[in-house]
Fold this sequence. Notes:
Layout: H1 9-16, H2 18-23, H3 39-42, E1 62-66, E2 72-79, H4 88-95, H5 98-101, E3 113-115, E4 123-129, E5 132-133, H6 142-161, E6 164-165, E7 174-177, E8 186-187, E9 190-194, E10 213-216, E11 223-224, E12 233-234, E13 255-256, H7 257-274, E14 276-277, E15 280-281, H8 290-296, H9 307-319, H10 323-327, H11 339-354
Antiparallel strand pairs: 1-2, 2-4, 3-4, 5-7, 6-11, 7-10, 8-9, 12-13, 14-15
Amino acid sequence: xxxxxxxxxxxxxxxxxxxxxxxxxxxxxxxxxxxxxxxxxxxxxxxxxxxxxxxxxxxxxxxxxxxxxxxxxxxxxxxxxxxxxxxxxxxxxxxxxxxxxxxxxxxxxxxxxxxxxxxxxxxxxxxxxxxxxxxxxxxxxxxxxxxxxxxxxxxxxxxxxxxxxxxxxxxxxxxxxxxxxxxxxxxxxxxxxxxxxxxxxxxxxxxxxxxxxxxxxxxxxxxxxxxxxxxxxxxxxxxxxxxxxxxxxxxxxxxxxxxxxxxxxxxxxxxxxxxxxxxxxxxxxxxxxxxxxxxxxxxxxxxxxxxxxxxxxxxxxxxxxxxxxxxxxxxxxxxxxxxxxxxxxxxxxxxxxxxxxxxxxxxxxxxxxx
Length: 370
């Protein structure tokens, strides 16, 4: 591992675009300034680990920046001559168009700006709002996860209803606008710490008290699917889920895009909630989702429900869940809250119930002033 004063190869890319982005209203962190001198080298009394400019980028293709309004945004670089990646811009812009952007069922990440490639380059840049992994900070209750399911189901149904397949419904393409849950926003490259690194972040609220919005991101493998061209087929494999049954058929015939989306969405819930797999543990109390996700992951793509059917069935399922189930703690299978932790949880959520705060914290978009 390189010492923190040495830039990684991808960090050098961002350093080389610092001025280009600055001229367009986006300022990268000091680490990426062309004339950067590490603060712990300027002042040897400082420890690099305690310095903000020691923090690297978490993912090479994206970086945080501050816009002209002082807000943190995310910038993604796109190599336009790469297969499929070229769809990121037109599909992102399509769902950010005024008519679609105002639809509350639209959970596609908004595109705030598109920066054309610098002269002689094939790299464009997408500017998007800063979001967080869907599970950070953690869910407190089953009801909070139910609202997450509702929104990502609704979002994928909306994409399909508007004739677009997502193409990569995996865990890190579901994100949360969770900034309201923190007293001060976390550092983009060190989520444990405040932006100034002068202390750890403080979580000030749960999703039950402060409902948040979830988004589908990354349209690099997405595809427009005109109804007149049905069925919408693509040669496998693609995307980040290597368990899609039809990808393993002899001869690997072309696969139906919508059916693969539905499988991947269902498999994501199996991996992270009902069954667990790899780094993700199964969660207690999600048996009510099993029949639906089993149908979504049917080995025969023709027997999978459409996303409209998934949404309809899900609404029926959640109407049958009682208050105790929905307010139960979000914990791994085989684990129970003990002692004071259990007492605090149930006391807090009993108060929420008495105050009329719903067990499923349904997010309602703010009304437009126009």
